[in-house]
Design goal:
Helices cover about 55% and strands about 0% of the residues. It has 27 helices and two strands. Helix 5 runs parallel beside helix 7 and helix 15 runs parallel beside helix 17.
């Protein structure tokens, strides 16, 4: 049998095919002359990458023969094994090796740690060093806004527990340093901090300015801030009966634009703009006069108006009558009709419990002696025929309390 030996030049052509030096299997795998600018097919074959696997390695994100070799040495003999790492974000053999060094060989388990917030093997190792050993434990921290083991350690070193940290995180506090700053200004609870942040006062320093100005509540500070009032200015207003911004606008409608203008009225008991309006309607136009009426015993603008329209139109003139027990100027004439013509004479009646001219008139039907009337009142009598008195002192007989009713007979003035 005759053996035919192909010339070397023809053998080379068959091996190389017609692709400019690239064997047909590599051409079929999509390897072109364009790819040779980076690496030749010989370099890929040198690391044991076959043409049929070339596309798979490229799809797995492996861009060089050297990288493919590293994945293989790591144990990812097949492109799919390398892809299992790259699709979870572990893009290099070096990163995968670091995960394996801490005992995590399965990409799916590594993915659980990454999803929990431990993005690298070193971070996972740090979390484990503070006893956060599982993805679930790490997730609890990252859900609380603590994104690193170092930060978690700082919280714990300051004495905070994870449940407490979660509350601070929900309040918008992102670090233990910030939490301590809030605590220093007496905002010791996350709930209070959240209230400040919700009204746009986001930092402990700004909140501190409001608190130092005497405005410790976030919602009230927010009213002043929205009105363009600084903490210092608001503090001056708030010294006056804890005034709030909405009331200041009402005061301004009456012409009061500074705390010093309002304070005398508030001190006189007119704490609201409508109070001032009532006094002014009554003809009382100064805070000093309001105070004078208050000292005389008149706290109401309507009562003051009645006195101002009478003969006794000033606090000085009204005071003796008021101190005698007279409530309105109309009562004075009624008292005078029964002979009590002076405050002193009226006081003689009111001091024994007869507080109106009508009641005094009834008692006068029985006696003109105030001493005798006072004694009857003390004993429980009333000056109305056939009406029961208040309960007289009880007689106790054999453990039973019996009340004795006393009346005054209009015709005789005698006791029944």
């Amino acid at each position: 049998m005759t053996k035919h030996i192909l010339p070397a030049s023809l053998l080379s052509l068959i091996l190389l095919g017609c692709g400019g030096g690239t064997p047909e299997p590599w051409q079929n795998a999509g390897f072109t002359e364009e790819h040779t600018k980076d690496y030749t097919w010989q370099e890929w074959e040198a690391v044991n990458v076959k043409p049929k696997d070339y596309k798979r390695w490229k799809a797995a994100g492996v861009s060089s023969p050297k990288e493919a070799s590293q994945w293989m040495r790591l144990g990812a003999k097949k492109p799919t094994q390398a892809y299992a790492w790259t699709k979870i974000g572990v893009n290099t053999p070096r990163e995968a090796a670091q995960w394996r060094q801490i005992g995590l060989y399965d990409p799916l388990k590594v993915k659980a740690y990454i999803n929990a917030g431990a993005l690298t093997a070193q971070e996972t190792k740090s979390w484990r060093q503070m006893d956060a050993n599982s993805p679930e434990e790490i997730q609890a921290w990252t859900n609380a806004g603590v994104m690193s083991a170092d930060e978690a350690r700082r919280w714990e070193d300051e004495g905070f527990t994870l449940p407490e940290i979660i509350k601070w995180s929900e309040a918008g506090v992102s670090s233990v340093k910030e939490a301590r700053s809030w605590i220093r200004i007496k905002a010791k609870k996350p709930k209070r901090v959240k209230e400040w942040k919700q009204v746009g006062i986001d930092t402990p320093d700004e909140a501190s300015e409001w608190i130092k100005s005497g405005i410790p509540l976030a919602r009230i500070a927010a009213e002043w801030k929205a009105g363009g009032i600084s903490p210092k200015q608001a503090g001056e207003w708030a010294k006056i009966n804890q005034l709030r911004f909405p009331l200041i606008k009402e005061w301004s409608k009456l012409g009061f634009t500074t705390p010093s203008q309002i304070k005398p009225w508030v001190d006189a008991g007119a704490g609201k703009p409508e109070d001032v309006q009532q006094w002014q309607t009554a003809g009382v136009n100064t805070a000093q006069e309001v105070s004078a009426w208050n000292k005389a015993g008149i706290k109401s603008a309507s009562y003051a108006k009645a006195w101002k329209q009478s003969t006794y139109h000033s606090p000085k003139k009204a005071m003796p009558w008021l101190q005698a027990g007279v409530k309105t100027p109309d009562e004075i004439s009624a008292w005078q009709k029964i002979g009590a013509k002076t405050p002193k004479q009226i006081k003689e009646w009111t001091s024994i419990g007869v507080d109106s001219p009508g009641l005094a008139r009834e008692w006068l039907k029985f006696s003109t002696s105030k001493k005798k009337i006072a004694k009857w009142i003390e004993e429980g009598y009333i000056p109305q025929a056939q009406k029961k008195a208040t309960t007289a002192p009880a007689d106790k007989q054999q453990g039973t309390e019996q009340s004795q009713e006393k009346k005054i007979n209009i015709s005789t003035g005698a006791q029944n």
